[in-house]
Records
---
Amino acid sequence: MLNNRKCHLCEESCIYPLTTTCGHTFCKECLLYRLSIYNRCPLQQCRTELPNIKYFYEHPSEQNDAMISEKRILEAEKRLLQEMPIYIGHLVFPKRTYTFNVTKQNHRSLIKSCLKSRYRKNFGMLLSKKCEYGTLMEIKQIESNNEGEIIFQATAMGRFKILSNGGIKDGYDIAKVQIIKDESDEEGGGGEEGKILINNNNNYYIKNVIIREPTNETTSQLINIARGFVNRNETLLHIRDLTSSLGEIPENAADFSFYMALLLPIKDEERYELLGKRSSNERMKLIVKWINNLRFQWGVL
């Protein structure tokens, strides 16, 4: 029975169990991750070659096992939110992939713990300990060099709010968190959370902008102000280099606000404010406020 099976890797009750030809049982996710690195039994004392890796990817679960596994996934997700591993030191925004070079011992312990646990790929990123909002990260690739440093890539999946500090576990910070999502834009947003609506007459918005905090503009109007600013200042070295490295301009209004924050030459402590905003319109208002401040500093329209 599934209830009696423990995964030899994460040492927890199995989720979607798979048993190798050498007789060892693992969570499907745990086993497939190890097989993506080498095609042998993950147990150090075994290391039997597993040539037919395709079998493990395609092997269906029994109906009863699947039902129990889904329940355990929900339980594991709840536990993760109760004790989220927290990596401190960077500001990251959703839907972007980052590369980190880990040298600190507490960060190494956190990554190793993530790799061992049921939800090995997930942890939270905070700019600093005093921050209330952070970003949920998912590890995509990982490697180590001869100096013992860990280098890994992780994608920012979403945002969270710290509900309470959980103290220190195995040398790294943990916290109880709540996942936050955008609410529908109210007045001023026009429900424009989908694709960006571009007004071809950008000059209208540029010429009529004054140095003030935006109030009643729609999300599309705010986006046009931002795009107009970039177009007029794309010769600046900072903006030219970043427009190349950040890739294509997002088509989604929610993603565009984070893209613009990375593009503007401002401090991370200012950019951090975006993480707590619950709509594209609110974030774009903040973006345009920053743009107006830069225009004033640079003496440009």
---
Amino acid sequence: MLNMFLVLILTRLSLELAQENAADLELDIDLVWSDIKNLNLKGVHVDTVVMNPPFGTRRNGADMEFLSMALQVASQAVYSLHKTSTREHIKKAALRGFNAISAEVLCELRYNLPRTYKLHKKKEIDIAVDLWRFVPNAQRRS
């Protein structure tokens, strides 16, 4: 059985860390460093997507771009972290906009986000986050 791992990376630092971790664990994975808008994954299909997308706070809708792409390429499931405050929006977008069969919050978490951008005012912030499981509808892919 062929196992394929595709890892999408957003920042240079994340890429370097992923490369180190993959080497340490002796994993054979493909790392792709790209802006989600410029990524062409047509025809690429994987069983499961696990992601921690941007929360869409800094750039409105960034999280939705990731969720849309994940539901297009996954055949079995998408696991993703999203801010709890956006729960209803996430569910509606997944089920109605992106044609998911189901969208379920598996658990609620607290995420301590350190200051990483100049626009962040506080040294760190505690954010309520949901871990979601989405089931894509492979028959309704466009």
---
Amino acid sequence: MDETDDTSRLHRIFRELQGKGLIGRERRLVQCPVTLSVRGCPALNCIRYRRAFYETHLSGASNDTLRFVLLHEEGHIRKGSSLLSALPALPVLPYLMLLHHPASDSLLPEVLASLQAGGLPVVRLASAALLIVAVFFAYRTYHRCMCDEEFVADRYAAEAMKRCYRVGDPG
């Protein structure tokens, strides 16, 4: 089977799932060179996949496996959080804003100058430590949210496979 026939199998399964109402009818399946694997993209209303990833990891998979992968990504779009990807950047943004643009009418510039006059960069060390702690806790929150979102997407795919394809144990 050549690669055109193989990717058409993925598209055929995608259309089949749309026909059953398991994937939104307005959703598109798009080949994307920047996506590392297969990913649901709610902002663009599509499921993106990388051809090289598909050929290496999914082309030999069964139709049920491909259904599960596509339904999993649909689960991310329907039940996941589109803002979750921005969570790790949140602690860095206020730090950068304060570091480079302190308010001119505040006491911050005077306090910074007086603390740094002692020869030790206390404020920079303290702000770096605060940033490290904030990034650590943001990562923990992000990781926990990602695990929850992956579980929800897996559950959506498993329930759809059980209901529509009579797969006893999709996991």
